[in-house]
Design a protein that fits this description.
The protein has about 450 residues and is α/β, with parallel strands linked by helices. The chain contains 15 helices and 18 strands. Helix content is about 40%, strand content about 15%. It has a five-stranded mixed β-sheet with strand order 2-6-16-17-18, with no helix packed on it. A four-stranded mixed β-sheet has the order 4-3-1-5. The chain has a four-stranded parallel β-sheet with strand order 12-13-14-15. A hairpin with a 2-residue loop joins β17 (about 440-445) and β18 (about 445-450). The radius of gyration is 22 Å and the shape is globular.
Length: about 450
């Protein structure tokens, strides 16, 4: 009898959904009372899904979660029908770049942006932020851009002036290697550990959210950067490839090892280093797909470069410049090591996925051919293809990402009391992880930013 009662209640919910469907077609960016009802729920905890679920949202918080048949939806709630879809926490991108959009050559991209006038860089960053949000990314870390523009776009997103994920901005990175990359991305070149520490203090006082330690740094540099950042209650993400750099960053207290191995940029690491990373529970963000998978994927389907969505979102001026840069994409300097990377890519990922390493998901999105619109689902697919269970990948995209950001109290899972950052995808990502590329609905902080209509 109890089962029959639940089924009757669920039928009643579906009837309410049918009546409410026209209202749910109108997206709103204002916090309200929302009910997402009918879809399968993945809560971020690697637990079995809740089928035919409901999520109630008031303001910016989740107030109730469970089977739809067990939840009464108050009459003042706006109902969004998620039947036949999957509901899950908003995804977290741990390594993106708002100042680049997939253009093939940094050496021509940044001069072109400057030539268009002072507003173009802002336009590029706003476009990137909106692309990330539309792709289901509700929180993101930007690891390298000029300070002023970084803080401005973050603050305008937070105020609701422009759409975008919850951005954690590093502003300029810190490195010992000067030259073109530092000039292009606004990086800071240091010549001593004392200077590195002083620059971290300046960035912290300016209001950055994280610090990025880039290339060429010494063991003492890493310690100075980590110690100073931690005194300012800021975490450090290190750009590391070579085993010596990974070892130094690990032992000197760097919080996140990003690019580590990068699926073949460096050969697989020694077993002792992997063991030490695992025992330290130090998070690794591989950024596997942005070269070793993107290149062969594009060779197999070059039509992806002319995705109509890019044309629509970029506008004719940016789209034309990006397309021009990719006419001879096989010869781009960015992919000069791709043959070597593809040789090691499988071992580069499996050394972490098979060892129990704490893995977050980051993509280096915006790098050549690595568009913000699809970078994260490609990264997820690379991990699944290398043997990581889909449920663990989804956890890495959500709950683990929130832990790495230090924001696990508010983000990363769907449960009562947490911020209502929720996406709805067409399909079952447990069966086919590329369903993450079909985001139909995006709710961030209780605001409906994207819906099917």
């Amino acid at each position: 009898m109890k089962t029959v009662a639940r089924l009757c209640a669920f039928v009643l919910v579906l009837a309410v959904l049918a009546l409410a469907a026209p209202e749910a077609r109108q997206p709103s960016t204002s916090p309200t009372k929302l009910a997402l009802v009918g879809g399968m729920l993945l809560d971020g905890y690697e637990a079995p899904p809740i089928h035919h679920a409901a999520i109630l949202i008031e303001g910016d918080r989740i107030v109730r979660v469970g089977p739809a048949a067990e939840i009464t939806i108050p009459p003042d709630y706006r109902i969004v029908d998620t039947s036949g879809r999957t509901m899950m926490p908003g995804m977290i991108e741990l390594h993106g770049h708002l100042i680049i959009l997939g253009h093939g050559n940094y050496g021509t991209w940044f001069p072109w942006v400057a030539k268009q006038g002072p507003n173009m860089l802002t336009t590029v960053m706003e476009t990137s932020a909106q692309q990330l949000l539309n792709a289901g990314i509700t929180s993101a870390v930007d690891l390298g851009a000029p300070l002023k523009q970084s803080l401005d776009v973050r603050d305008r997103i937070n105020s609701g002036a422009i759409p975008g994920p919850r951005m954690s901005m590093s502003g300029p990175w810190i490195s010992r290697n000067g030259g073109g990359m530092n000039d292009q991305f606004g990086g800071i070149t240091v010549t001593s550990s004392e200077q590195a520490a002083a620059e971290v203090d300046k960035l912290a006082k300016a209001g950055v959210d994280v610090i990025k330690a880039h290339s060429g740094l010494t063991r003492d540099d890493y310690k100075a950067i980590a110690d100073t950042a931690h005194r300012n209650n800021i975490r450090v993400h290190a750009h590391v490839y070579a085993e010596t750099d990974v070892r130094n960053a690990l032992e000197m207290g760097i919080d996140v090892l990003t690019h580590a191995g990068s699926a073949g940029t460096a050969p697989p690491y020694s077993q002792q280093l992997i063991t030490d990373i695992v025992n330290a529970a130090r998070p690794v963000v591989i950024t596997a797909a942005h070269r070793a998978w993107i290149y062969p994927d594009t060779a197999a389907f070059p039509e992806r470069l002319q995705d109509p969505l890019l044309k629509k979102q970029f506008g004719p001026l940016i789209y034309g410049e990006v397309q021009d840069s990719l006419k001879n994409w096989r010869a781009l300097g960015y992919f000069g090591r791709t043959d070597r990377e593809m040789t090691f890519r499988e071992r580069g990922v499996k050394q972490f996925t098979e060892s129990g390493t704490v893995l977050g998901m980051g993509t280096d999105s915006g790098t050549p051919m690595n568009f913000h619109t699809e970078a994260l689902w490609r990264e997820a697919k690379a991990h699944v293809d290398m043997g990581m269970p889909a449920i663990k990948v989804i956890s890495a995209l959500t709950r683990i990402g929130a832990n790495i950001l230090g924001k696990q109290r508010d983000l990363g899972t769907i449960e009562t009391g947490k911020l209502a950052d929720i996406i709805v995808v067409d399909g079952n990502p447990l069966y086919d992880i590329t369903a993450l590329g079909h985001v139909e609905t995006v709710v961030k902080g209780g605001r409906l930013y994207k819906s099917p209509e």
